[in-house]
Q: What sequence folds into this?
């Protein structure tokens, strides 16, 4: 049974053949060096438009201003269907991913609310996405080398 639902907005920021991801520690006690990577962005507040949520989230996580472009990808994440079902079985998130451009440098001194476990942000070459622990994993095959989306906009219920 779904007990938590939220909409989320994420930023796809591409520069020089690289995509920006937040690096987060997995929190696994047995391997403190285990990391995963997610697009900047997060949950929409009630009464907040998705572009406004994304601007706020990028300020919170990156300390940076972004220009919001077009919606390019969307996914469902129904926790009970994926590898984190033990902790996420009651969680359903609808995630909208927008093409964005940095309008100010990343400045962690201006970041106001990093994600739990967020260490830094990293630029990952698009040609190397398949080698990284990226969520959702569907992003690994969603782009060509120039950063153009090469899959349908709706990715499905994926992690």
A:
């Amino acid at each position: 049974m779904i007990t938590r639902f939220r909409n989320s907005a994420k930023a796809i920021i591409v520069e020089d053949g690289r995509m920006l991801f937040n690096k987060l520690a997995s929190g696994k006690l047995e391997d403190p060096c285990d990391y995963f990577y997610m697009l900047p962005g997060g949950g929409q507040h009630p009464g907040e438009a998705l572009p406004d949520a994304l601007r706020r989230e990028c300020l919170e996580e990156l300390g940076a201003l972004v220009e919001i472009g077009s919606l390019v990808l969307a996914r469902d994440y129904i926790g009970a269907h994926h590898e984190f079902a033990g902790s996420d079985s009651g969680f359903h998130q609808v995630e909208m991913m927008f093409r964005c451009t940095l309008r100010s440098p990343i400045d962690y001194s201006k970041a106001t609310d990093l994600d739990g476990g967020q260490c830094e942000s990293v630029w990952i070459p698009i040609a190397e996405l398949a080698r990284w622990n990226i969520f959702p994993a569907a992003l690994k095959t969603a782009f060509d080398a120039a950063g153009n989306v090469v899959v349908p906009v709706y990715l499905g219920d994926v992690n």
Summary: The CA atoms of residues 61 and 154 lie 25 Å apart.
